[in-house]
Design goal:
179 residues; alpha+beta; Alpha-Beta Plaits; 8 strands; binds adenosine monophosphate
Length: 179
């Protein structure tokens, strides 16, 4: 037991012991660049392990705005949920995100979708993200990297949740010359 602990600590296994899924979105300026920069700005205590493709998706919640690019990243971290949110907010600030109305256009948006199979609720943070089930722009990239992940609240696999949303408008983004 002791030797396992020593091995575990020295190989850093206890340091990145949570699996998290983070949603990235952007619909202002060079959207692809904003997603790339957000990934590159992840601090050493958030370690991405897989990336979905980037998808172009229609705006949701408030339709009179440009289309989004969306992506989902699976990562490992030792941070607590509030500390993780704080780091993500710092990345949004570094990329120059300005406050805007709910569902409005944004340079970069970083949301925590899942944190292990935790259910967490505070004034500032709800995990799993409450809108996952009806957002095709999240379910399509999630399905690509974690189809069999089970939503800890509704106990359904991502692939089954995705079967109930309209996915035709979620198109793989192959790049363009954005400014
Ligand atoms: P947003 O406009 O998507 O950046 O979200 C605005 C606020 O939603 C954030 O500042 C958080 O306090 C709150 N929030 C609640 N749950 C979550 C979550 N799972 N991931 C990210 N933000 C969240």
């Amino acid at each position: 037991m002791d030797s396992w602990l020593i091995f575990s600590t020295s190989s850093n296994k206890t340091m990145e012991n949570h699996v998290v899924f983070i949603a990235l979105g952007s619909n202002i300026g060079d959207r692809a660049r904003a997603l790339n920069e957000a990934s590159e700005l992840m601090p050493p205590d958030i370690i991405p392990v897989s990336f979905s493709k980037v998808y172009e998706t229609p705006p949701w919640g408030y339709e009179d705005q440009p289309p989004f690019l969306n992506q989902v990243i699976k990562a490992r971290t030792h941070l607590s949920p509030p500390a993780l949110l704080k780091r993500l907010k710092e990345i949004e600030q570094k990329l120059g995100r300005k406050p805007i109305f709910r569902y409005g256009p944004r340079l970069i948006d970083l949301d925590i979708l899942f944190f292990d199979d935790l259910e967490y609720k505070s004034e500032k943070l709800t995990i799993p993200h409450p809108e996952i089930d009806n957002r095709a722009f999240v379910l399509v990239p999630l399905m690509e990297i974690a189809p069999n992940y089970i939503h800890p609240v509704c106990h359904k696999k991502i692939v089954d949740l995705a079967a109930h949303v309209e996915v035709d408008s979620i198109i793989e983004f192959r790049g363009d010359n954005e400014q």
